[in-house]
Every structure is written in C-alpha cells, then in structure tokens.
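Could you join me in thinking about how sequence relates to backbone shape in a protein? We need material for that, and I hope you will provide a protein of your own picking. Once you have written the record down, we can walk along the chain together:

…
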Amino acid sequence: MDSQLVEMCMESATESLDAVEAWRRQRRTLEMMPSHLAEALLHRLLRRRLLFPSLLEVFKFCVDGIDLRGESYVDAEWMAYIGGFEHLHSLNLSDCNKINSSAIWAIIGMTNLKELDLSRCSKITDDGVRHLTTIPSLEKLWIPETSVTADGVILLTSLTNLSFLDLGGLPVSDSALCNLKVLRKLQHLDIWGSVVSNKGASHLKWFPKLSSLNLAWTKVTMLPCLPSLACLNMSNCTIHSIFEGEGQKALLTKLILSGATIKDVSEAFLHLETSSLSLLDLSNSSLNSFCFLPYMRMISDLDLSGTSAGDESVEHIAFVGQNLRHLNLSQTKLSSAGLGTLAGFVPNLETLLLSYTAIDDSAIPFMCIMPLLKYINMSGTNIRGISNEVDSDLDCVSSLSGLSTLEHLERLDLEETRIKDSALAPLPSFRKLSHLFLRSGSLADTTLHQLSSISSLVTLGIRDGVLTNTGLDVFNPPPPMKILDLRGSWLMTEDALLSFQQRHPQIEVRHDLSIALVKRLSVSSPLSQATPRAKLYINKKGGSSTSPLRSIRDGFLDQRLKYTNEELLAMRFDSTSISRDNVVQIPHELANDG
C-alpha cells in the first residue's frame, strides 16, 4: 500500500510543468525527503524532460547521487547548481558533450564527493583535472576518452584516496604510470589504448591492492608478478607470457584475451595459477589449440567465438564442462556432430551461443539434454525448424518442439535462418520464454498470430518479414510485452504502426519508420508540450509559437510557422504582383495534374 501511495505521489508530481511549478514553490517540503525517494523523483523528472537547471536547487539538501549520463544539454549552468549539493556522493556526467573544464570549476572543493564519471566528455582537458585535484575525497574517477594528456594524468597523484581509476583511451606513458604508483589504495586501473609498454608495466607491482587491470590495445607483452590481481584484460595485445616467472603466481578469476596474438600457448599460461579461473575470454584470438583447457577446471564462463575451434576441440571443452554455465562457440567450425559429443558433459550449462556455425536441425535433440539452458542463440545457422523433408508445410514436424522440454528457457535467437511460420507452432508451449528474436523473409502475419499465445513474452523481434498492416491490426500482444521489433517489415505503413502504438502505449515499437512515428506521437503527447527542452520560436511581434517539431506531418516541415499572419499575407500579395511575363508557363496538362 505504501509503495502504491508513493507511486501515485510521484506520478502526480511529475505530470506536467504546471504540477512541478506547484510544488516547487514549497521547496522546504523536500528538505526532509529520504534521499532514495528524492533521487527517484529527480530522475523521473529527467526522463520526462521536466528537469531544468534552477529546479535542481530544490534537491540540493536531500540528494546524494545524480545521474545525467548522455544528456547532451547539460552544461555549465547545470554544474553551477550542482555545485551547491553539500551531500553529493556520486555524479555521473558521462557522454555529456557540453561539459568542459570550465564547467568542472563549479564542483571544486566538494568534501563529500566520492564518485565522478566524466567518460567521453571530450572537452575535459588537463585544466579540468587541476580542478579535480581540489576534491581529495574522490575514490572513483572515470575520465576515459577525454582530452586529458599524460601530463594531466600525473596531476592525479594528489588524489591519494582513489581506489578506482579509468584512464581508457588516454595517452598514458610509462613515465605517467610510474608517477601514479603513489596511489597505494588503487584496486582498479584501466589504461586500455595507452602507450604503456613492458617498461611502464613493471611499475604495476607498486600497487599492493590492485585487483583489476585493463591493458587492452597496449604494447604490453608481459607483466610482473601481481599476486593481488584477480581480473586481467589484455585484449588485442601480443602476448609472450602473461606473467614473468619470478614470485608468487597470480590467482586470477577473470582473464580476457579477446583478439590477442598469442605466440606460444604453453609459454603464455606457464606462470598463471588457473585453479581459481572462472571466466576465460579467448574470442577472436590467434589460438588454434586448446589443449590447456583441462587445467582450468573451475571455468564457468568460456568464450571461444571467432576462433578456429571445431569438432576436434570439443574433447578439451568437455574436460571443463562440469562447471560451465556460459559457453560461446559462435563463428567457430563447430557442427551438429561436435555438439552431440559435448552434450553429455555440460549438465549445468545455462547459455549456449552457436550463431554462424554449421549446425542444423539435427543439433536440437542434443540441446534437449542440457536441462538448465536459459538462452540459446542459433542465428545465422542452417536451422530450418523442420525435422523431416516433405513437400507440404502442413505435413512438417517442427524440430523446435524438442526444446519444449527445456523448462528454464527464457531467450531464443533464430535470426537469419530459414525458419518458416509452420515451424514456430510449438513456441506457445514454452512457459518461460520471454525474449524471442526472428529474422527471415519467410515470416508472415501467421507468425504474429501464433506468437501472441506465448504468455511470458516481453521482447519479440520479427525482422525482414512480410508482415502487413492487417496482421498488426489483429495482433493481440501478451500482457508482459514491452518491445516489438518490426524493422525491415516494409509492407507496414506509418498509420498502422501509429494505431498499434496508440492501442498499446506500454510497448516500444521499433521500425524503420520509427522516427516519423515518434514525431507524429509528439503531436498528441501532453509531455511533449511541457518539455523545457523544446525551444519556443519567437516571432517578430514578440509572441511565441509552438516548436515546428510539433507540426511535422507525413515527413515534411510546414515552413509557414516561421512567419506571422501579416507576413504571410504580404508575401501572398507580393507573389500576385509579379509580372506574368516573367513567369514560366506550365503546360496545360501538368497544370491540371492533381
């Protein structure tokens, strides 16, 4: 009951600009609001485009976390108000492209700020870092893909409380990394894409608590002994040996080597303690032998996608199969026969990704003896959905019926296969299926009708089908549905999509006409008229007109909105006064056409 009452209050408070203005005048009533409720109210206003800079002042005594990620309109004015939040604990400004170093000045000297995310704010420079050095309370800092240089990185040495530092994509040098070794509390360091080499990496041993390290896209080929390290990412590196031979071996739990070039597999893993390794990502790496897998028996998440793994590699995978929960063999040389060999050795498997492999319908019975499967991806394979070859679709037996024994199956991907409508008949019996993705030119309106009976369906994708307006009109989506992806269904019209969206406003419809659809919906949406982001266009008489976005119909913009009635009349009379001798005469046939 309490939660329902809170929801009703939240809904009422964020209904419109008028509703916001009504309680804004009573700012003192928010000062005692619990922080979690205040943050929920603030972020609901943000989602509905009802939040503007001066309104932030109402929250400055009751909010300790602000998330503005991706909001491109956030600028120095917003930061000026945020600077007054005395109890602010975390601030996320990632992807706010108007935030620059000058805007950061507003938060200098904050005493309670512990987490700050400036990821991909490209206008942040070394000057911005100088402002950050006045916030000694910072424990977590993200500044990847900004304009900070190696000199700016060195400035961070004064933030001695940092435990998490993301410098991804910055030109961190060996010298800069050496200077950072004064950050003795550092547990996570991300320097992907830097110019750090083995010389710089040798300084990593001075971080006694370092447990997570990202060195992807660097020149590092070997690391010193790092006994505290648990997670290591060396994707797209050329690896000689992950660790040098001296000292205690690192007890890694996660190792990511995606796209790595591994010179000698036996040498690469020689000084690595594998007894506790639970995640191993070798996707798109240069490996062509997987004989080391039997020594990694605790692996629960294995990614071999994009490698040369095939049926001959299955015996090595089987050695670690007992604990496997997630297995990715997409874009490998695996066939149905290889999957059959593996099937009896992975009793606890929950995720099986086989997209763009050579498997066909004969592989489905092998999946049925993996009882805990929740997610299967067979996109881009030879799956047809039929288990017998007959002339008539009516006589076909669907191979997908075998999957009905998988009581935990929640997601099924069958995009870019030769699946037909008739093969989908068993799917309504899949009680827990909540996400289904199809993409085939053979799917028609019958598909929509059949799939409407899947009671747990939340996301449905039917792309590139020959679905029509009629099929969409009679489609009765399951109650839980939130997303309907119909991209590539070229027979559907904007009017049919708009009608469906109005009947089912809780469903997000994705289609190639989505942009036009959003524009048309904005005409009738009360929230679109209340948003402070929609600019008002001022005419020459000083009055305001509604945004031209609200007049977009059928894909064109009515240019008359830029002028007053008097100006339109003037232009009309000016046009009639033009000498007919200067006008190109239109042929009679064309003049009467439409």
Q: What stands out?
A: The CA atoms of residues 136 and 174 lie 25 Å apart. The chain is about 25% helix and 10% strand. The longest helix spans residues 35-47. The two ends are 62 Å apart (CA to CA).
